[in-house]
Structures are given as structure tokens and as C-alpha cells.
Design brief:
heterodimer; A: about 400 residues; alpha+beta; 2 domains; B: about 240 residues; alpha/beta; Rossmann fold; globular; disordered N terminus
Chain lengths: ~400, ~240
């Protein structure tokens, strides 16, 4: 082992130019692999984040004719107890309404929130452009698009008409921007008790919205399944974002698969490159291998010489590749930026992915050395001795 | 594994290599016979020369004696051990421990220094060099007169220096036999004399058996026994002592 390692490192040292070239080849391959992997997972993270980051990921709704859930507080409590992975549990009462403004009328969705609990899902405090959250029953918050449509701003009052003919006047306490136009245009946010009172639905909600830890966002179906036991009413059901966004999921899957394909072929080309260069180096070093065999080196040791070369090149290339890959990623986030200075795509650099890439470099380089190692083991010293 | 070279050399005068009815035939459909029924035995501690024209089969004979090549038929016994049924690994170990090679074209590893080349057979067997073996390597380097260039890479030495390094390397495992194929083949006459003197000294000091293939009449005449190979057969076997 030791002599094989010593000879391997000496072979590499004696041919520095070639060694640097191969290591650089591995490094560039691995850095591209790291860059593409980080880019794609960054893209996916931000896509997921904008799609479900500020939305209900698991929702309990009712299939009953009136779509209402009665014992919602008990349900919310048992959901929290049932599953510690839930980061937010928020009951909501949604009802339609109209804002009649001169000749035109805007149809809106009155959403009654318990803002303390909804904050964990919607992060309203960061989404408010002006003003503050509604706290009283006669206060409300509207989206930026609705505000523009109505020409309303914080401090104005708005009269809302609902189906049963009732009217109520709300004081606009704040304008929010949830980055989705339909939401910004239709959502009319007020307190839960205000909507319950207006529609005479005391003690009832239309849904219980929940969020889970972002790290396990893709396990929403599993968490939803785990929550099933708490549902005793057969008319209630649990949905999750994955079931509701199949086309997004298949898009993400397609993206992941193509990313893996690219990474795979990059690594394959690295392996082929190393294998061919090392195969040639067996020919270059056949005289040395022959003389070592005449002096009694065993075939296993002589093949280890080339495996060690692959290993050392893999280690060198892996370290270099990590450096170049991170450098590429960093410069991408520095130079590919929007006017406001934030990166076009926020790369997601996962420590485990980097470690995996590094080991991929080491393992694939060592595997690439298998072919030359076999050649070296098979080399007959007499060929070298006889032919000089 | 004890990192010590333990040798049980054949007693002086006992045969150290015995060749019995060695035939070597090359080729498949068109065959060429290179050696015909060679019977030879070399006694321990002797200094032997093998001469013959190019193509006579002497190098093939040497390679077979060194277990680098296998005979088509016939047996070889080295230091009392039959070799025909040995595995490649057993032969590798046998070469490592029993035989030192000196080739015409030196065959040092150019990536290593003179002293590292000398240590190489030991490193192959034990992996790392003990202080004792390093001292022995330095001693051998002194013996062949290379003290000043011992840390030079093999490529930074003259032909004669490289050949002397090869001799020191052949000696490091204290082998029973040294096989030398034209050791002075491409050296000038002064250097040839030096190399011969070194080999002769070693033969006398360590009682190492030398079998030297040579074209050089001058060297051949100084050996204890001259064997001439002609067309794959022994045409002359002359012992002087």
C-alpha cells in the first residue's frame, strides 16, 4: 500500500503539467456540476417559496352544503397536538362581498382571520406597505390593486355589501402586497369575529389553514395523512398543496430530472477524460511498471499505483472544483442581479450537496483509474525487458 | 512481519540455480525454437559469464533464470525451490528476495533519486524503510562510489553512475543471485572496468552468485566460468576455477 501510494504520488509530481491539467479537468467538471445543481435547487426553492411560502400548505375544509366547520377551535388544538411539524394553524372564515363604488362594483372575498395565528402563514407584518393590521371588528386591510381600483388609502372608509343585503362600513387600516394580483385585488382582510358577526356564522369557519416546516414542504401529503385521525366528521377533508398543484410538481420534477441528467453527463465526461489520460499514462510508465515487476512488485500493488493516482487526482480536482464552483456561484449572485441589487436567481448552496459532489469527484476519479489499473496489473515485465 | 532480511543462502559450492531440460518455443502457428534442452547448474558464490551472438538465445535464457519468462518445457530450481508451479505473486516474491537484476539500459525509476532507487526492492517488500536499511543503502551507494550523487534523480546521472546505482539496487535485498544482462553494454572502457571491479568485489565479499551476459571479451575472460550459447544450445562450458 505505502509503496504504491509513494510511487503514485511521485509519478504525479514528476509530471506536474499533466497532473494539473487532469485535476483542472475534474475541477471544472465538478464545479459545473455544483453550479448547475445549486442553480436548479435555488430556482426551485424560490419557486416553491413564492408559490406556497405564504399560503396554506395543508387545509381542512368541509364538504357539507354550507361549507362550514363548526368545532374549529377543538380541531385546531388537536391538529397542533397531533403533529409537531405544523408551524401554523389558523382558522379562517371566507365569504363573498361587494364594494359598490359609484357605478361600478368590485367583488371581494371577505376573509376573517385571527391575525395572531395567520401571521405565521402570511407574514402580514412584512407585507404591509402602509398602515397597520386591523385589530377591531370595524377595521380592515386591502390589497394594493384593490386600493388603486377604489382610489382608497389607509384611513379611508369603505362600505361592504353582502348577499343578505347587509352593509357594513370598514376603516382601512393598511394596504398589503402579497405579490399575487388576484389576491391583491380581491382579498378584504378583517377579523374573524367581524365576518362571523356580519354573516351570522358565530362559532363557524370555512377552513383551517396550516403550514409546515419549509424543510419538509414536500412532505405535506404525508403530514396531511398523519392528520387524518383527528377528523371525526365525515364531511370534513384535508387537502395539501401537492394535491392542488400537480402541474407545478411535474414541472419541478422535470426540472430536477434534467438537472440530474446534466450533472450525470458532466460526471461521465470527467470519468472518461481521466480514464483515457490515465490509460495513456500506463503506456508512458510501462517501463517503470515492468522494472518494478522484475524487482518483485505484485500485480495488486502495481494496479494500486494507478488507483492511488486516480484517488489523488480526484481529491485535488474535488477541492479545486469546490473552490471554482463556489466562486462561480458567488460571482453569479454578484453579477447577475436585478436593478435593486438582488440576484436574479438566489442560488441554494446545500452543504450536503457540496460534500456529495466532492465525494463524487473522488469516487468517479478512482473508478476511472480501474481500467488503467487493470492494464498495469496485466503488464508482463518481459515485454518491457525484451523490448528495452 | 519482521523487517529484517533473513536469508538462508545455499552453502558455498552448492548449486543455486538448476536448469533442467529447458526448451523455449515462441509463436503459435509459426513456431521458433530459441532454446534446446538446456541443462545448467550454477554453484553458489561463483562468478559466471554467458556469451553468445545476438539471437543466440542467451537473453531468453537469462529471463527464464530470472523467472521473468517461463520455459515451454523444463524446470528451474532456484535456491532449492521449484518454480514451475509458482503463482505470479510467489514468483514476484522470489525475485524480490532472491534475485538482483542488472540490465543493460539501467532501468532505474526516473522519478526517484539514486538512493530511493536502491531502496526500491526493500520498499516493495516492506513498504517503509527502517533506519538500518537506509544505512545499508548508503553503505552500498558508498561501495559503488556514488556518495556525492545519491540524492540526484536517476535522470541527472551519467550512464556509468546509473549502472552503478542499478548494481547497488540489485544488492539491497542481499540476494543469492545477481543476473546481469550486458551490464557494461553501453559504457566506455574505463567505466566498464570500474563496474566489473565492483561486481567482482561484491562477489568476493558477500559470496553472491553472479551470472553475467556479456559481449565484452575482456569481462568474459575474467569470469570463473564461461558458457557460450550458440543457436539455442550450449556450445562451450569452460570452468577456470
Amino acid at each position: 500500500m505505502r509503496i504504491a501510494f509513494k510511487i503514485a504520488s511521485r509519478f504525479l509530481l514528476s509530471n506536474k503539467g499533466q497532473t494539473i491539467l487532469i485535476a483542472l479537468g475534474i475541477a471544472i467538471g465538478i464545479s459545473v456540476q455544483i453550479f448547475i445543481g445549486s442553480l436548479i435547487s435555488g430556482l426551485q426553492k424560490s419557486l416553491i417559496d413564492t408559490t406556497i411560502g405564504n399560503a396554506s400548505q395543508i387545509t381542512i375544509v368541509s364538504d357539507a352544503d354550507d361549507r362550514l366547520i363548526n368545532n374549529y377551535e377543538a380541531l385546531a388544538r388537536s391538529a397542533k397536538r397531533q403533529d409537531l411539524r405544523l408551524t401554523a394553524v389558523s382558522p379562517v372564515l371566507d365569504q363573498p362581498g361587494l364594494i359598490i363604488n359609484d357605478e361600478r362594483s368590485e367583488s371581494i372575498l371577505l376573509r376573517g382571520f385571527d391575525f395572531n395565528r395567520a401571521e405565521a402563514i402570511y407574514e402580514f407584518s412584512q407585507r404591509i406597505l402602509v398602515g397597520k393590521l386591523p385589530v377591531r371588528d370595524n377595521q380592515a386591510m386591502i390589497g394594493i390593486d384593490l386600493a388603486q381600483e377604489l382610489g382608497a388609502s389607509a384611513g379611508d372608509t369603505i362600505e361592504v355589501t353582502v348577499l343578505n343585503g347587509q352593509k357594513r362600513t370598514y376603516l382601512v387600516t393598511g394596504i398589503f402586497d402579497l405579490k399575487v394580483q388576484t389576491v391583491n385585488k380581491t382579498w378584504f382582510l378583517t377579523t374573524l369575529s367581524s365576518v362571523q358577526d356580519l354573516f351570522a356564522k358565530d362559532g363557524q369557519v370555512t377552513s383551517i389553514e396550516m403550514q409546515i416546516d419549509p424543510a419538509i414542504a414536500f412532505e405535506s401529503d404525508l403530514v396531511a395523512a398523519d392528520l387524518l385521525p383527528i377528523i371525526t366528521d365525515p364531511e370534513l377533508k384535508i387537502t395539501n398543496w401537492k394535491a392542488q398543484n400537480e402541474s407545478l410538481l411535474s414541472g419541478l420534477n422535470g426540472q430536477s430530472v434534467s438537472s440530474y441528467m446534466i450533472q450525470f453527463f458532466v460526471v461521465v465526461s470527467v470519468v472518461l477524460g481521466i480514464a483515457s489520460v490515465l490509460a495513456i499514462s500506463v503506456l508512458q510508465k510501462s517501463k517503470q511498471i515492468g522494472i518494478l515487476k522484475a524487482m518483485g512488485i505484485r500485480s495488486r500493488q502495481s494496479s494500486l499505483i494507478f488507483l492511488f493516482q486516480g484517488l489523488i487526482l480526484g481529491l485535488l480536482g474535488g477541492i479545486l472544483g469546490l473552490g471554482i464552483g463556489l466562486g462561480l456561484a458567488y460571482s453569479f449572485t454578484q453579477f447577475a442581479v436585478r436593478p435593486d441589487g438582488t440576484p436574479v436567481v438566489a442560488l441554494y448552496i446545500d452543504q450536503n450537496f457540496l460534500i456529495l459532489s466532492f465525494f463524487l469527484a473522488v469516487v468517479s476519479s478512482t473508478l476511472a483509474a480501474l481500467v488503467p489499473a487493470r492494464k498495469s496489473a496485466k503488464l508482463d515485465p518481459i515485454e518491457v525487458i525484451r523490448n528495452g | 512481519m519482521a523487517k529484517q532480511i533473513i536469508k538462508t543462502p545455499a552453502a558455498i559450492g552448492e548449486p543455486v540455480i538448476i536448469l533442467d531440460k529447458i526448451n523455449k518455443i515462441y509463436g503459435g502457428s509459426v513456431t521458433t525454437q530459441v532454446l534446446y534442452d538446456i541443462d545448467l547448474a550454477f554453484k553458489s558464490g561463483t562468478f559466471n559469464g554467458i556469451i553468445g551472438q545476438s539471437g543466440s538465445g542467451k537473453s531468453t535464457l537469462m529471463n527464464i533464470m530470472g523467472t521473468l519468462d517461463r520455459p515451454t518445457t523444463g524446470t528451474i530450481t532456484i535456491n532449492g525451490r521449484r518454480t514451475e508451479n509458482m503463482t505470479a505473486n510467489q514468483l514476484a516474491d522470489l525475485r524480490n528476495e532472491t534475485i538482483g537484476f542488472i540490465f543493460q539500459f539501467h532501468y532505474l525509476l526516473p522519478e526517484f533519486t539514486a538512493i530511493e532507487n536502491v531502496l526500491m526492492p526493500y520498499l516493495i517488500k516492506y513498504g517503509a524503510a527502517s533506519r538500518e536499511i537506509k544505512a545499508r543503502a548508503a553503505e552500498l551507494i558508498d561501495l559503488v562510489g556514488l556518495t556525492k550523487v545519491k540524492n540526484n534523480l536517476a535522470t541527472k546521472m551519467s550512464g556509468g553512475q546509473q549502472q552503478r546505482t542499478a548494481i547497488a539496487r540489485a544488492l539491497i535485498m542481499n540476494p543469492a543471485i545477481i543476473l546481469a544482462d550486458e551490464p557494461t553494454g553501453n559504457l566506455d572502457s574505463d567505466t566498464t572496468e570500474t563496474v566489473y571491479q565492483i561486481m567482482r568485489d561484491i562477489n568476493e565479499r558477500f559470496k553472491t552468485t553472479f551470472i553475467i551476459i556479456t559481449h565484452d571479451r575482456h569481462i568474459a575472460e575474467k569470469t570463473d566460468r564461461i558458457i557460450e550459447i550458440k543457436d539455442g544450445r550450449i556450445s562451450l562450458d569452460l570452468a577456470r576455477r
